[in-house]
Design brief:
- There is one protein chain.
- The chain is built from 47 helices and no strands.
- It is globular.
- It is an all-alpha fold and 1028 residues long.
- Keywords: Cell cycle, Cell division, Chromosome, DNA condensation, Mitosis.
- It is found in: Chromosome.
- InterPro entries: ARM-like, ARM-type_fold, CND3, Cnd3_C.
- It comes from Lachancea mirantina.
């Protein structure tokens, strides 16, 4: 309520007095005394929390005495009336909070008295319980009358009181429970976030903590809905912190680790997971825990990352008594991807742990998965931070490490009968040791040779899985003298693998031939012999074509060996940077391995071949240009997996080489590639391909590699298309990339402004079709409303959002003005009246200043006036047009006046220059007067303006008053500065600060005390009513 309550004083209610006692005089006196006693308590309690315990005791004595004398209803009546006075107080005023706290403390103390009476006297317990129940019932029913008030402060105070009461009560009646829950159902969706927060606090007490499922009509279901869909972060936070944690609600709470609000994300780690203690490893699945740790340690907000680090490095590690191995065993390092970040976080934030970690010599004889992971993480951390003393104390020489690796390799690939779990654990141990070996010090030549022989033999002999091949090649790269040496050894390994497989095939063929017997006994050999004899008899010497083909076919490696070779070549190519012309061996690898793999019919081999080809294209622009046709065909004709790889390769090639790979002699046309991206973006059946294409296009547009407006328009249309609403990867890519693109450069914002009007028109037409039900495959609610789309486009074209913009560039051109002009030009193409109304009521959000183009501003004014005169628009649209037209006219007037002032200033300077030139000519024909020595000549001028001021001052006919006025006018004109957006924003901010500092910051209080001369209590002016 806007009116002040500081002067309001409660007045008596004569009717209540009459009903209170048969003796009107005695009843009135008791009524006044009771009111004054309660009012005195409330008056004092609103000032501070310090005396609340004493005030609660006084209230209890007043209530007990009133009940004893038969004034229970009077006590309840005045208690309600005094509390009602607090309801209109704003949320920021502490007096209201203190009274609410007083009421809560009073009810809590009464509840404690009832519980104490339960253990001592059953009769007293029954009486006190009945009295408290009556008081709570009438008080709650009374304040519930204001729960739907039009005043947001009343609704807030009512829900706040309910939350405090429910927090301090043990039991309530079934009828009162139904009434409260029914009343709170609407408040969960109140338009004020503060009311919704207090409603959540109240509903918290009605949850079923042991429920096996979530009842749709229960309080838990309301909290789940709020935690997922409420737009206010405070409401989501209240729901998250108060929702009961069990198997049914766990996933909803952990979802807040991806909340848009950093405070909510932080509380998942600092409150939710921390409060679970050691139970978190038993109650939370390891996949969910791994996901939460990855999100927390990689969060973009530093406070969230710090909260997750404190959880792991301090809370969890202290629970384990500082045992890192035990913590890693709970995290199951062999199955999770976040363990690296966890150990690094521990080592970074707990330097004391590094000094306590000791690796005894016998640990290398029996390395577990946890200890292997700790060995790798500790070694890499020490290398990064140059902790040589820790390395020398805990890690062996390269020779001993190679022997340890050899032992575990033999155990994995030489022993038979190992279980799948043991194989997995051994491979994990080898991977960790390989990762440490890739950063090892190989200054000892013996250790280097031992490790080199081990790596070459393991890559050539054993059929290692992909992670081990990748890690092994990294070790080989560290052992190589240079990149050429690394390529030579890698190609030798690949060639040896292929040759050995071909030899095995030939040997198998020879053994098969021996098993079949001599050629005479074979039917095909006899037939071949007979045909050769006939050809000789006829004089035909040409061999048969089928024999030529059989002779031309060469042996190829088997599929399994070919896969291993392609994996080796892939990870080798990822580790080199030398251009292909300097690596002849890679050219031979392309001809003999990679290109045949691309033409292979097996999908896995073809995908690996295409990925290898893409890595080669990054190293050579000519090969990239030659391969663009193959890559385009893979996107057009390939299966989804092949499309994904081809799209990634195309984006990487353009990112490295730019547009040099297209539009040339013998090269692919860029328009053809654009069409490929069109088709991919419109193909809703392949969401992963859409996400890859969209993210890649955003990168290429951001780097100005692609500059086509039509392709960019297709990209923006895909962002708002309802068909892509469920493609979360695509939505996330657009949510990050498009704002970054628009705010990174003026040219980018200019491109967005060029396409924005057509984008808006197309999307509006699509939305209209959805509302009419003409699109059967898409739901109407899947698409944003045109108002939200228009606001997003206005935001993206806002020039004030540009980063690293200079003052000069900010004042030159406003592309948001172009967007507004383009939209108004196509205004008549919008068919729906609600869309037109939305457009006209939202254009006021566009920034217009006097630095904008006057011709465009005048054109906008003319179009708006034409719409106002000729189109049938409603009152709100008319007011919006009138407002913006007045604003545009004001801007045009200001701009013209500034231009006139600038022209007049330039003209006066030209006149002064002409006077100077004339004076100079006259002085040239007149002999100069004899020079007089002085400290300063008063007639020497530094500029034409100085001379003009001197002429004005020395004019005899000018009056003093006119002189002062002229000087003031000249001074004000010379001090005129053109307005800029920055100056306007500064003026607005200063005015806002003045308004803030000039406002009344005194907290409001409520007067509960009657004037001293009042001897009676009347009914007038005290009945506080609710605005319903």
């Amino acid at each position: 309520m806007s009116r002040s309550l500081a002067s309001r004083t409660p007045h008596p209610m004569q009717e209540a007095v009459v009903e209170a006692s048969p003796n009107n005089g005695a009843g009135s006196s008791a009524n006044v005394r009771l009111f004054r006693a309660l009012a005195d308590v409330f008056q004092k309690a609103q000032s501070t929390y310090a005396g609340h315990r004493r005030h609660i005791s006084v209230l209890k004595r007043i209530q007990a005495k009133a009940i004893e004398q038969g004034y229970e209803e009077v006590f309840n009546y005045w208690f309600n009336k005094l509390v009602v006075l607090v309801l209109p107080l704003r949320r920021a005023e502490p007096a209201g909070d203190r009274i609410v706290r007083l009421v809560g403390g009073f009810i809590a103390s009464s509840e404690q008295d009832v519980e104490q009476a339960r253990a001592t006297d059953e009769t007293t317990f029954a009486e006190q319980e009945e009295q408290l129940s009556r008081f709570i019932d009438q008080f709650v029913r009374h304040i519930l009358r204001g729960i739907e008030s039009k005043d947001k402060n009343v609704r807030y105070r009512v829900t706040q009181l309910l939350a405090v009461i429910m927090d301090n009560l043990g039991e309530i009646s079934e009828d009162l429970y139904n009434l409260i829950t029914w009343s709170l159902e609407k408040r969960v969706h109140d338009k004020e976030p503060s009311v919704r927060v207090q409603t959540i606090f109240c509903l918290t007490k009605f949850q079923d903590e042991d429920g096996d499922s979530i009842d749709p009509d229960s309080a838990t279901a309301s909290l789940v809905t709020a935690i997922q869909h409420d737009p206010s972060p405070e409401v989501r936070r209240a729901s998250m912190l108060n929702l009961v944690l069990n198997n049914q609600t766990q996933e909803y709470i952990f979802e807040r680790a991806r909340d848009v609000n950093p405070v909510n994300r932080r509380l998942v780690f600092s409150r939710i997971l921390r409060s679970m203690g050691k139970k978190v490893f038993a109650d939370v699945e390891i996949e969910s825990l791994n996901r939460l740790l990855s999100w927390g340690l990689d969060d973009r907000d530093e406070s969230v990352r710090n909260a997750c680090v404190r959880l792991v490095a301090f809370d969890w590690l202290n629970i384990m008594d500082g045992d890192v191995i035990q913590l890693l065993s709970y995290l199951q390092v062999s199955k999770t991807s976040s363990s690296d970040k966890v150990v690094n976080a521990i080592l970074e934030s707990r330097p004391d742990i590094i000094s306590k970690i000791q690796l005894p010599s016998d640990i290398w004889d029996d390395v577990s998965t946890e200890s292997a992971f700790l060995i790798k993480s500790l070694y890499l951390f020490c290398i990064k931070h140059k902790l040589d003393d820790v390395i020398d104390k805990n890690f062996p020489e390269a020779t001993s490490l190679s022997q340890t690796l050899q032992k575990y390799l033999d155990k994995r690939y030489s022993q038979e009968g190992l279980s799948a779990k043991n194989e997995q654990n051994l491979e994990f141990v080898i991977l960790q040791l390989f990762s440490a070996a890739s950063e090892y010090d190989y200054s000892d030549e013996m250790g280097r040779r031992a490790m080199l022989n081990l790596i070459r033999n393991s890559l050539a002999r054993f059929k290692l899985p992909e992670p081990l091949i990748q890690a092994g090649l990294k070790v080989l790269r560290a052992l190589s003298i240079n990149e050429r040496d690394f390529i030579t050894m890698s190609v030798e390994i690949i060639t040896d693998l292929r040759d050995e497989d071909i030899e095995r095939q030939e040997q198998a063929d020879e053994e098969r031939e021996i098993d079949l017997g001599d050629d005479e006994e074979r039917p095909d050999a006899i037939e071949s012999f007979n045909s050769a004899v006939e050809n000789l008899a006829k004089g035909v010497e040409e061999p048969q074509q089928e024999n030529i083909e059989k002779f031309a076919i060469e042996k190829e490696a088997g599929s399994e060996t070919l896969m291993i070779c392609l994996v080796l070549s892939r990870y080798m190519l990822e580790l080199i940077n030398t251009p292909l012309p300097e690596n002849i061996l890679i050219y031979s690898l392309i001809d003999t391995l990679i290109r045949p793999a691309v033409r292979n019919t097996q999908p896995e081999i073809r995908q690996l071949g295409l990925r290898n080809l893409g890595l080669c294209c990054i190293l050579d622009v000519e090969l990239a240009a030659e391969s663009m046709f193959i890559l385009g065909m893979c996107v057009s004709k390939g299966d989804p997996s092949l499309k994904n790889i081809a799209l990634q390769v195309i984006v990487d090639v353009f990112s490295v080489h730019g547009s040099k790979v297209v539009d040339g002699e013998g090269k692919v046309d860029s328009i053809s590639l654009h069409k490929i991206f069109y088709k991919v973006l419109k193909n809703h059946e392949l969401p992963e391909c859409q996400a890859i294409a969209a993210e890649g296009l955003c990168k290429l547009f951001l780097g100005d590699v692609f500059v086509d407006d039509d392709l960019f328009e297709t990209l923006v249309l895909s962002c708002f298309s309802p068909a892509n609403a469920k493609n979360e990867a695509l939505v996330q890519a657009f949510a990050f990339c498009l704002p970054v693109y628009c705010f990174s450069h003026r040219n980018h914002q200019k491109r967005m402004a060029r396409v924005a009007s057509d984008v808006f028109l197309r999307l509006t037409m699509l939305w209209d079709d959805l509302q009419k039900g003409e699109c059967d495959d898409m739901a109407p609610e899947a698409m944003l409303r045109p108002g939200a789309i228009l606001q997003q486009l206005i935001h993206w074209t806002d020039p004030s959002k540009l980063v690293n913009q200079s003052k000069e560039s900010d004042d030159t051109e406003n592309y948001q003005l172009d967007f507004l002009l383009n939209v108004l030009k196509i205004y008549n193409r919008f068919e729906r009246k609600d869309v037109k109304k939305m457009l006209l009521t939202n254009i006021n959000k566009i920034t217009l200043t006097s630095e904008d183009d006057l011709h465009k501003l005048e054109e906008i004014r003319e179009i708006l006036q034409d719409i106002d005169d000729n189109d049938n628009i409603d009152v709100s649209s008319h007011k919006s047009i009138k407002k913006i037209v007045e604003h545009v006219e004001q801007i045009i007037t200001e701009a013209k006046s500034e231009k006139v002032e600038e022209d007049s200033s330039n003209q006066s300077e030209d006149e002064y220059s002409a006077i100077l030139s004339t004076t100079g000519e006259n002085n040239a024909h007149t002999p100069p007067p004899p020079r007089q020595e002085s400290f300063g000549d008063p007639h020497e001028f530094d500029s034409p303006m100085d001379m003009s001021r001197d002429m004005i001052d020395n004019t005899p006919s000018r009056k003093p008053s006119r002189e002062v006025g002229s000087q003031d006018m000249a001074k004000s004109r010379n001090s005129t500065v053109p307005r800029t957006r920055k100056r306007s924003r500064e003026n607005t901010s200063s005015q806002r600060r003045e308004r803030i500092h000039g406002s009344d910051n005194v907290n409001r209080t409520v007067s509960f005390i009657l004037p001293s001369d009042d001897n009676s209590v009347t009914d007038e002016g005290n009945s506080s009513t609710y605005d319903s």
